[in-house]
Amino acid sequence: MEATMAENKDDIRPGADDQQITLIDDNGNEELYNVLFTFDSDDYGKSYVLLYPEGIDDDDDDVQIEAFSFTPDENGDASAGDLFPIEDDDEWNMVEEVLNTFLADEDMQ
Questions:
Q1: Is residue 50 part of a domain?
Q2: Which domain holds residue 53?
């Protein structure tokens, strides 16, 4: 899937609720995703966004979460433009660790 945000979407702000991104696949099909959360990594000098498909029930245990890096603007926001795939195994492991911590914290609430 090509990770391109649609031009008409709002900025993504860390901690903002109900943010959505439209991803466009290689065939030009648009798919709507919700922002789960964003975070920064000092180790990699990047910002990350984790997304899940719109329309997923809260009770659904098999939710595929997509993760991308992005370059924030001077305000720390991501706006319409490209998201970048995570290609390094160590970087993936770090993202998975952050996600697992987030999910564990959510389960405790």
A1: yes
A2: 20-108
